[in-house]
Amino acid sequence: MTWAITELAKKEEVSVITSRPLAFRWNPYIKAVHWTWDRALWENVIRGNELITLEPYSDSDFYNKGENRLKVSAKQLKVEESNPCLFLAEHEKLSNILPWNRPVLFQPFGSSMNKYGADKSYRSFKVEDAQYIADNLRANWYTVYVVETDEQPKLNGCEQFTTEDLRWMVTLPWRYPVIWCDSCLHHASKALWRSALVMWAWTDAWRFGYDTDINLRNGEKYDYVPFRLWIDFNTDIQNQYCNVFTKERLDNFINEALALCSQWYN
Fold it and tell me: Scanning 17, 43, 114, 235, which has its CA 20 to 30 A from the CA of 151?
């Protein structure tokens, strides 16, 4: 949403309250950036000012017309659609180059899947399925960067990004292929006019995806099983689930992933 807010800030004075303050930190048009958990928000920022809440998922157009969050944000802020923008510090720009051979960005787990409970929106892969995909990518000489939080399951043989890297990570779809479940970077890929490979299971590609992506969905929704605690995979979490795919389905996904990666690096 940074570009929509920037367009508004060019016309009038804007302060931003967000759980991701670093995303706006170096923006020269925004008056001030405040963290959501600042206890003095009401007294020092909100009181006496107009408050606009940006939440695409609460806008009926996001669902009824299949509009993505970029269009909905522009509508909510009453600004014209513009090119995406992200203002980076110089040291952040320099760190946008990954050091390993043929990097691939991979996110098999939804953002809320952690040791306290599996992803409630059924977006995540089963851990062994995610490992199977990563192993096949690595066997074809790709370096797999898994985007996850510190509390999510770890995949063997993969490099790791945590969500703390998100600020500069959203520029990476310019340079590297994105292989994803329904979470995070396929939205950045769309904003940067790049395609992503997205595995859709329990969530809806029509609502949350983009025509420019390689959206893998065969119609029916797939089976699910209880997710295991990341510390003890033999312990069930009651009523929490993740997706389970057949080997044929996973192999088809891997073939699509290898084709996408080959287009980037050959």
Answer: 17
